[in-house]
Amino acid sequence: MKLFESVLNLIYPPKCIFCGQILDYSAVIHICGSCFTKLPFSDSAIIRPWQEDEENYCDGALSVFEYTGMVKESLIRFKFYNKPGYYRTYARLIADKLNKLTNIKEYDMVMSVPLHKHKEFIRGYNQAYLISKALSRLIKLRECSKVLKRERYTESQSLLDRQKRNQNVRGAFSVKLPKKVNGKSILLVDDILTTGSTLEECSRVLKQAGAVKVFAVVVATGRK
């Protein structure tokens, strides 16, 4: 795989995912030195459950960046402007922070927040799944995204307030193979965390299927 990636990088030189500068063919993380010094890395180690006055199903979250500036622009390109290759760098950054702050051996599998098949068809890929697949290889855990299914089409969460976001995703997910998650600890991957409604709903159905722990990992968060 490393040899293949090196040959591919010689033919198609890697570019910084933030400014587009061409990088050395051997670059593993596609970020130039100039952009790296300006990145809004998240100060928070672990984001605790986000609904203090309610029951929480998600046991916490980890984010690499704050959702602002060049990170926000990069994620918009990744998600909406056909830049799926960014997933490699995002996954490596998440893996690095996970290894520093958590014990990977506590987890059994990695899975992504599912995208509705209509949205995935239009976009051409599920951005969270790309990250999850790469992350699973880096931290050597099983990738089990097929276990979690999106049952219905939902409005874009970015257009809704917190209450409507909760209502929008309620009942939108199901667990296809409960036996796979029963008694397991799960890393749940998404690209962006804002109110946490989507991650909370995914965690709810996973816990109801028997999962003992669900911990979210994201590229960026808009939470303070």
Write the layout of secondary structure elements.
Layout: H1 2-11, H2 33-36, E1 61-66, H3 69-80, H4 87-101, E2 109-112, H5 117-123, H6 127-139, E3 142-143, E4 148-150, H7 162-169, E5 173-175, H8 178-181, E6 185-193, H9 197-208, E7 213-221
Parallel strand pairs: 1-7, 2-3, 2-6, 6-7
Antiparallel strand pairs: 4-5
Helix pairs in contact: 4-6
**CATH fold type of the largest domain:** Rossmann fold
Strand content: 15-25%
Number of strands: 7
What integer value in Å does the Rg equal?
17 Å
Report the helical percentage. 25-40%
Mean pLDDT: 88
The stretches of 5 or more residues where confidence is low (pLDDT under 50) are none
> What's the tally of helices?
9
- What sort of overall outline do the alpha carbons produce when their principal axes are compared? globular
Biggest sheet strand line-up: 1-7-6-2-3
CATH first level of the largest domain: which class?
A: Alpha Beta
Largest sheet: 5 strands, parallel
CATH architecture term of the largest domain: 3-Layer(aba) Sandwich
User: End-to-end distance, in Å?
Assistant: 38 Å
- Please indicate the count of domains: 2
In a nutshell, what does this entry contain?
The chain has 224 residues and is an alpha/beta fold. It has two domains: 1-38, no CATH class; 39-221, Rossmann fold (3-Layer(aba) Sandwich).
